[in-house]
Structures are given as C-alpha cells and as structure tokens.
Amino acid sequence: MSFWSQMGLQEGTSVLGVEVQGLYDYSMFLITMIFSFVSCIMVKILMKKFSGRVYLESQWLEIMWSILPVGFLVALGLPSIKLLYLMDEISLPEATIKTVGHQWYWSYEYSDSRGSSYSFDSYLVPDALMEGGYRLLEVDHRCVVPSLLCMRGLVTSDDVIHSWAIPSSSIKVDGVPGRINQISLCFLRTGVFYGQCSELCGVNHSFMPICVESVSTEVYTNWIIENHNLVLQEMANKGGNSWTWWGVLVAVAKAVGNGVYWVVSMYGMFLFYLFYYSFYIPGKFVVLGGLEITQWFVESAFAFIKWSLWFSNSPVEASIYAILYLAGNLWGAIVFTVTSPVKASFWLVKGIFKGVMGLCALSYYTFEAIAHSLTSFTEDSFREFVMQEVNLNTKKFVWIITDRYKNG
Ligand SMILES: [Cu+2]
Predict the structure, then answer these.
(1) What are 55-67's pLDDT values in tens digits?
(2) Between the chain's N and C termini, which has fewer beta carbons within 10 Å?
(3) CA–CA separation, 136 vs 288, rounded Å?
(4) What's its catalytic activity (predicted)?
C-alpha cells in the first residue's frame, strides 16, 4: 500500500503490477532523455544564431528528424499496447470470485463448487485506527484469494456504477449494473492489499474500501471447503428430512441414466474413431487412387480409338501426326537430358530464393527479439519461477479439492 511521501507507484503485488511498474520506469527514462535533449537544443537556439550563408538544405537531417520521433513513439507505444492486451487475458482460472458493488459496500460470492454458494458482505470498519488498522481501509470481512494461483474475478453492481480497484496489482474494473466484467487475479505473494471504490457512486463512496487477503493455496482451499460445507449443512437443516421413496427412485434412475449415457457415449466415440481411421481414411485413398488410374486409362484408350478411326480414314495424315507427336515427346526428353546446365541454374535460383527467405526470417527474428526486449520488464527467470509456482499451486488446489470431495 502507499506510504507517506511516496514518489513512485506502489510495489507490484501481481505479475501485471510488476510489469506496469517496469513500463512506468522505462517510459520515465525515455521521457527524461527526450526532455533534456530538447531543452538543450532550445537553450542553444536562444543563445546562438543558427544560420549559415551556404547551409541551405540537409536531406539527411530531415530524414533523421522524421524517423527518430517515430522510433521513440513505437518504443513507447508497443509495450503499452502489449500490457493493455495482457490485462484482459484470463489464463485458465481455477475458480471464480464474484464481486458485487452496492451502495455502499462490497459483497463477495464464491459459487463454483459443490453447487453451493458462499457469499458475504464486506463493510468498512469505522474505528479501525483505534484497533491498529488503517483508517477507512479496513473491512469486517476480507475478500480471500489464493496467492500464485490463477483466479477469475467477476465484477458487477447492484445499483449504480462502482469500480473495484487494487492499485498495487494494477486492477481496476468497473462494476456496471446489468453487466459482468472479468479480470484475472493472480497475486505474487501472501499479504493484505487495499483499494478503494474508484467510481463516484454516492455520498458514502469514500467509505466502501476493498480489502483483499492473499493466502497460500492450502489455506484458501481449506477455508473455502469449510465454508461451503457450512452452507450445505445450513441448507440441509432448513430442508429437514423430507426425503421420499419417490425422490430416492428418481435419484437412482438419474444416476443409472448418467452412467449408461457415459458408457454409451464412450463406446460410440471409440467405434467412431475406429471406423474413421481403419476404414474410412484407407478406403477413401483406395477409391480416389483407383478412380484416377481408371480415368487415365479410359482417356488414353479413348484417344487411341479416336486416332485409329482417323488412321482408317486418312492413313497418311494420321501417321504424320503420330510421328510428329512421338518426335515432339522425344525432342522434349532430349532437351531435358542435354540441357542439364538449365537444371543447374534452376538449383541456383532455388538457392538464392532460400537465402532471401532466410534473410527475411533473420530480420523477422531480430525484430521479434527487439520487440520482446522492449515489452517485458521482468526477467525470464522470474516469470519461469512464477509459472512453476502457479503450476504447483494448481496441482495442490485440485488435489486438496478432489481429496476432500472423495471423503465428504
Ligand atoms: Cu464508489
């Protein structure tokens, strides 16, 4: 979170947050360089007379002062555009947290597990300062998220437009009534991160803070399972023991139907692929090849019959035609064998073509390398580490969930 006399951005708590920080530092560096250079030129213009008796034009100078600014703009715009698109990227999230804005509090919903929905409201704690907390930032129930695990956040609103924002993670999503916006939640470490409603929503707009508690995958998974079990228990208690033989029968029939459907669909798929690859594909090739050979044979036979008829009518003409035809074919074969230098030149052309293509590929890869170095502000080893941790946590999450569901 921010601290007194802070100059830059908050310390990044998500991959995006770190990247945005990198972009900020990089653009500030470029801007400072441009500003100082232009200031120097302007001071020089004020101090000196930039005029010469023979210095009338300079093509080279004009080309440079057109191309250099374009280069700077690209260097500033490219990383920005890349981050903009990365922000919308939701890469295979494990679970969903739904955030609903109200006048004037937030509510969180954890609903995609076991058919139950665990939700709670999150209100400001008015006298947090007295309890050692941060003023106007602490809430009674924090939004709990796992760290280093990909989650999906859905943000919407119940009344007016709100905005769910956590500056340190570069998150700001508008909660619009009647619309659902989504955001990727992947925090780099455990901790408590603060934010505030960032869209003017009424008199108590300043008093609906956002407080996210990032915990380890194990803690999160156990927490969500416990709460879902509590909700399920409450639902069962409310419903009472109102089961009937009819209900049991329907449930059993449903289960049997599901099983039969599953088995039948599996076998159907198996038989389909078996038929497709062992009969259809080979059959298709045999039939098509046979058709082609038959077509060639029929065409040749037809041409020969035609020529025979012609020969029976006017033998001289037909013979001359046949001799010319065969000689033409023979001449073609002779030319092909004698003029092997042509073949060599053909290979040369092919080689040149390949070389040009290789040069194009080389320039493409060079461009890609430059674009990569321009657009990523974190080290490759850091990103690899994050990916490894995320994979590990995903496995842990799935393992704990399946284990718990098996047992209870
Ligand atoms: Cu607000």
Answers:
(1) 778 899 899 989 9
(2) C
(3) 76
(4) 4 Fe(II)-[cytochrome c] + O2 + 8 H(+)(in) = 4 Fe(III)-[cytochrome c] + 2 H2O + 4 H(+)(out)
Distance 201 CA to ligand 1 centre (A): 4
* DSSP bridge pairs for 152: 96, 184
**Residue 100, strand partner residues:** 107, 156
Domain total in the chain? 3
Contact assessment for residue 184 and residue 10, using Cβ atoms and an 8 Å cutoff: no
Residues 158 and 100 sit within 8 Å (Cβ to Cβ): yes
How far away, in angstroms, is 126 Cα from ligand 1 center?
Answer: 17
> If you write DSSP's letter for every residue of 122-147 in order, what string do you get?
E-B-TTGGGGTS-TTT-BSS-EEEEB
136 and 74 within one domain: no
* Residue 341 Cα to ligand 1 middle (Å): 80
Q: Using the mean position of ligand 1's atoms as its centre, give its distance from the Cα of residue 10 in Å.
A: 21
Distance 200 CA to ligand 1 centre (A): 4
Could you tell me the CATH number of the domain that includes residue 82?
1.10.287.90
189 with 214: CB under 8 angstroms?
yes
Neighbours of 120 (CB within 10 A): 16
pLDDT tens per residue across span 149-169: 888 999 999 999 999 999 999
**What separation in Å is there between the alpha carbon of 209 and the centre of ligand 1?**
9
Q: ipTM of this predicted complex? A: 0.94
Give the pair of three-digit tokens for residue 156. Answer: 């919407």
Q: What is the CATH number of the domain that holds 178?
A: 2.60.40.420
The maximal CA–CA distance of the chain, rounded, in angstroms, is 120
Q: Where are the alpha helices (DSSP H) in 182-216?
A: none
Mean pLDDT for the stretch of residues 184-212: 92
